[in-house]
Amino acid sequence: MSDTSPWHSASFELPPIARAVGPFPRREFLEAWWHRRGSGKLLSADTGDSIVVLTVADGVVEFAGEADLTDYHTPLGSPDVPALAKAVSELPEGYRLELDSLPEEARNAVVAVLRAVGLAPVYEQHELSAVLRLPDSFDEYLMSLGRKERHELRRKRRRFENERGTTSLERRTGPEAVRLFADLHRRSSGDKGSFMSDAMEQFFVELHDQAGGAIDVLVDASGTVASAVFLFETGNETYLYNSAFNPDLGHLSPGNVLISSLIEQAISVEHQIFDFLKGNEAYKFRLGAEARPLYKVAATIGPGR
C-alpha cells in the first residue's frame, strides 16, 4: 500500500463496482476533495485491476471523501476487489475500518473481501439517496406523479411565470458562476447559510474547474437569478449536488421550479437517471424519486486477521 499520491493511476478509469455513482469515486472528485478538505494520511492500494483510496487518522480507516460531501463510495475495478484485500493485509492490528456511503453492490463486495481476509465485518444502513428514473417525455413524467403532486408542481411553475415572466434555464461557468452560487447559498437561513464558508467555496471552485461540476440557474424575465444548482452529469445521468435560492423570491418556490426545469432538461437530452443524492427530504419523493439505501461497513483488524 502506498502513502504517495495515487492521482496519476490509470486504474481510475476502471468501472465502479456499484452502478450510477456519478463522479464521486473518480480521480477528479477525490483529488479536489483531498486538496481542499483532506486530513490524516492518504493511503492507496492499486493492483491494476482494482483501486481503493483510503484515509487513516487515529487508527480509523475510511474511504477518501468525507461522508457529508461524498455521496457514494465504491471501489473501482474487479468485483473481487484485490486492492482492498491488499490494503487490509497491510494495516496494523487494532485499526478500525469504517467504510460508509456504499450502495448495495459495493457493500456486498466489501463485506465479501473483508470476510475472505479473516475479518468479521458488520454493516448497517446509515443513509439513503433519492433516485428518479426518467421516462421518455416530460409529459410522461408529470403523469407518473400523484394527482396532488402533479397539480402542485404545475401550479408552482405557472405562479412563478405569472409573477416573474418567462423563465429560462442557463448554464453559468467560471469563477463568477461559483461566486454567484456561493453568495446565493450564504443568503440561506440556518445551517444552510453557514455551510458556504470561504474554504467551502474554494472546494466548489475546484470541483467546477477540475471535476466537471456545473452551475445551472433559473432566471426570470428581468434577468434576476431566482435559484441555482451545482450538479454533475456523467453519461446519461444527472446528479444534483447542491442548491440555493433567492430568499426574496422564496414565496414563489424557485427551488422547485428550477428542479422541475432540470428534470425536463434531463429528459430532453435522454438522460435516464436524475439523482437527488443523499438525504430523505420530502420534496424529492414528491417529485417521484425512490430511496436507494446506503450502507456503512465496519471491521477491526484483529491478531492474525
Describe the structure.
The chain has 305 residues and is α+β, with helices and mostly antiparallel strands. The chain has two domains: 10-129 and 292-300, Aminopeptidase (3-Layer(aba) Sandwich), CATH 3.40.630; 135-271, 3-Layer(aba) Sandwich (Aminopeptidase). Helices cover 35% and strands 28% of the residues. The protein has helices spanning 27-37, 82-89, 104-116, 138-144, 147-164, 175-186, 190-195, 198-210, 254-268, 282-286, and strands spanning 41-46, 50-57, 60-63, 76-77, 96-102, 122-133, 168-172, 214-219, 225-234, 237-245, 273-278, 290-300. Strands 1, 2, 3, 4, 5, 6, 7, 8, 9, 10, 11 and 12 form a twelve-stranded mixed β-sheet that branches. A hairpin with a 3-residue loop joins β1 and β2 (50-57). α5 (147-164) packs across α9 (254-268) and α6 (175-186) runs antiparallel to α8 (198-210). The longest helix is centred in the middle third of the chain and has 18 residues, at 147-164.
Write the layout of secondary structure elements.
Elements: H1 27-37, E1 41-46, E2 50-57, E3 60-63, E4 76-77, H2 82-89, E5 96-102, H3 104-116, E6 122-133, H4 138-144, H5 147-164, E7 168-172, H6 175-186, H7 190-195, H8 198-210, E8 214-219, E9 225-234, E10 237-245, H9 254-268, E11 273-278, H10 282-286, E12 290-300
Helix pairs in contact: 1-8, 2-3, 5-9, 6-8
Q: Outline, from the CA principal axes? A: elongated
Alpha-carbon Rg, integer: 21 Å
Q: Describe the main β-sheet briefly.
A: 12 strands, mixed
CATH topology (fold) name of the largest domain: Aminopeptidase
Q: Report the span from N to C terminus.
A: 17 Å
pLDDT < 50 stretches: none
Strand content: 25-35%
Number of domains: 2
Number-wise, the strands total: 12
The CATH architecture of the largest domain can be given as 3-Layer(aba) Sandwich
SSE ordering: HEEEEHEHEHHEHHHEEEHEHE
SS-derived structural category: alpha+beta
Fraction of residues in helix: 25-40%
Look at the structure and give the mean pLDDT.
95
CATH superfamily of the largest domain: Gcn5-related N-acetyltransferase (GNAT)
By DSSP (H or I, 4+ residues per run), the number of helices equals 10
CATH class of the largest domain: Alpha Beta
